[in-house]
C-alpha cells in the first residue's frame, strides 16, 4: 500500500489520539481509515 496522503494537522491529531509517533501514523492506512469511518 502507498503511504497516506493526509495533512500534517490530521496526522498530528491521529498521533496524539493513538499515542503513536507521527512516522508510524504515516505508515498505517488502516488506522486512518478507522478514524475516517467514525
From TrEMBL:
Pfam (any one): YycC
InterPro entries, alphabetized: YycC
Protein name: YycC family protein
Species this protein is from: Bacillus subtilis
Lineage: Bacteria, Bacillati, Bacillota, Bacilli, Bacillales
Amino acid at each position: 500500500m502507498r503511504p497516506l496522503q493526509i495533512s500534517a494537522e490530521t496526522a498530528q491529531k491521529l498521533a496524539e489520539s493513538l499515542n503513536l509517533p507521527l512516522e508510524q501514523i504515516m505508515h498505517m492506512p488502516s488506522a486512518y481509515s478507522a478514524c475516517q469511518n467514525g
